Amino acid sequence: MRVLKIHPEKCTGCLRCELACSYMQTGDYQPAKSVIRVSPFEAWCMTACPVGAITINAVGAKDVVDDRCVGCKLCTIACPYGTMFYDPSTRKAFKCNLCGGAPACAEACPTAAITYEDVETADWLGDFARERTARVLAEVR
């Protein structure tokens, strides 16, 4: 699976990734409208969404399914990295969609602080689910 890998220690703060991202998302060079932040992240937004509106698409990005999103903003609150956003005009959440499989931020980064590469798939939720299930079952018994 291809993933966007973030290497914060290589980041110089040049904002080229945010400029490229904002242009791909809005058609304008406005870093404030970028949906990329150079930080490590897990998908807390997925577990916080009460209606299951955040899914993983074919290129491995977490997508917000507009038809399911109720605009509650819980995903934006749950995300500690500032990578979930709310669009008041649509009343829906949104985030990085990996530019459909060709992330502009990775192409624009001069120091390879952002790369798009093949990695082995990790089951980040499996261990949590096993531990939680065991704890809940132990409490019930």
Protein architecture, described:
- The protein is built from five helices and six strands.
- Strand 2 and strand 3 form a beta hairpin.
- The chain has helices at 16-26, 44-48, 74-78, 104-108, 126-140; strands spanning 2-6, 54-56, 62-64, 84-87, 92-95, 114-118.
- The protein has a two-stranded antiparallel ribbon with strand order 1-6.
- The longest helix has 15 residues, at 126-140.
- It is an alpha+beta fold.
- The protein has one domain: Alpha-Beta Plaits (2-Layer Sandwich).
- It is 29% helix and 17% strand.
Summarize the structure.
It contains 5 helices and 6 strands; from the N terminus they run βααββαββαβα. A two-stranded antiparallel sheet has the order 1-6. A two-stranded antiparallel sheet has the order 2-3. It is 29% helix and 17% strand.
Instruction: List SSEs in N-to-C order.
Output: EHHEEHEEHEH
Mean pLDDT, all residues: 84
Structural class assignment: alpha+beta
**Principal-axes shape call:** globular
The overall number of domains is 1
Distance between the termini: 40 Å
CATH architecture: 2-Layer Sandwich
What's the CATH first level?
A: Alpha Beta
**The biggest beta sheet, please?**
2 strands, antiparallel
Helix content: 25-40%
Rg on CA atoms, Å: 17 Å
